[in-house]
Amino acid sequence: MYLQVAQPRLAEIKGIGIDIAPISKIASLVNRYNSELTLLFTPGEIEQCQSAPYPSRYYAVCFAAKEAVGKALGTGLVDINWNEIESTISQSELTIELRGAARQKALHSGVKAWLATWCYWDDYVMVHVLSKGE
Q1: In 1-134, at which residue ranges do the beta strands (DSSP E only) sit?
Q2: From the CA atom positions of the chain, what is the Rg in Å?
Q3: pTM: predicted TM-score of the whole model, two decimal places
Q4: Residues in CB range of 47: below 8 A, 6 or more apart
Q5: Cα–Cα dist 56/50, whole Å
Q6: Residues 4-58: tens digit of each pLDDT
């Protein structure tokens, strides 16, 4: 006799990406390339980071999120512009939105949604992203 138990349908995991970024190094990068920040960050990220209580920490989260998304896609950031990956940061949530080639790569891989978290300690931030198919 078999007992068949219904299994909850789990979202298909397409990829996982983790990145750790040193806040002080990202702060130096931002100060050094202040006039060219739009090559790395979207206007929305720049505005969000500049108005945050800890701008350097927020810039580091956005930077690490881009690296983590590249890892989750399995291709790194090859052929993707850094500003095609946008992070929106809140106290309890990190939202990822893709545009351009990044969005096309994600769609080609069957990625339909992203889950992301972040934390910090000392001089570091860590971002963890999970791409889901359903």
Answers
A1: 13-22, 85-89, 94-98, 113-121, 124-132
A2: 17
A3: 0.90
A4: none
A5: 9
A6: 555 555 669 999 999 999 999 999 999 999 889 999 999 999 999 999 999 999 9
